[in-house]
Amino acid sequence: MKDLRVILWDIDGTLLHSRRHGAFKEYMRPALVRVFGTAGRLDEMVVSGMTDLQIFAEALRDEGFTPEQIRGHLPELIEIFLGGMERMAAEGELFTALPGAREALAAVEREPRYLNSLLTGNVEPAARLKLRLTGLEHFFRLPGAFGELSHDRRDLPAVARERISRHLNQDIDPEQLVVIGDTPNDIACARHFGTRAVAVATGRSHSTDELLRHNPDAVLPDLTDTKLLLRTLAAL
Ligand SMILES: [Mg+2]
Prior knowledge:
Layout: E1 5-9, E2 16-18, H1 24-36, H2 52-59, H3 67-72, H4 74-91, E3 95-97, H5 101-110, E4 114-118, H6 124-133, H7 156-168, E5 177-181, H8 184-193, E6 196-200, H9 208-212, E7 218-220, H10 226-234
Parallel strand pairs: 1-4, 1-5, 5-6, 6-7
Antiparallel strand pairs: 2-3
Magnesium ion (MG) is lined by residues 10, 12-14, 48-49, 181-183, 203.
């Protein structure tokens, strides 16, 4: 079974994006204000590749809240901002699947060697909601690694490996995991754990050239060429 590969998909900028750039601030800001009385420096931040926990901690960095305090209030924050996301989604399309994402996930699912899973900075309920709103949720039945677990994305591949190994009842090696994402942080988390890294240049913050400087195993312009994706995965 060492032939098996688990594809760990990032969500934002890789499989889908918000229709309006920075829309997340519209639902995260009120949650921070309600729980902590301030959203701190959220409005100035570029958050691509960060975990949700890290976004909250960075936003409140200068407001005197410790990461532990923020973690303690996480269930409350999540409940409020998920409610905001749902309200915004009900008013008009909030997220769109990126071109080729659905076909890419279906093609990977059809290959017996590959399994789809998630490695994302989103907290799990937000990840699941975004995938549901874009009709991609049924591709992800395996456990994954999510943004409530750490302030540091580099901690997530080890968690994904542990959960998936337990779920499959077999030991998955780091080199059987492939991280696919749109930011240098995706590549860094893969490198940190000895997994493979495929970058896609569909994020709003990082060009192909910039991603190449972080030495991924491959860079794809987007997910529209399913055959190219499968060839790229087969060559890793
Ligand atoms: Mg991303």
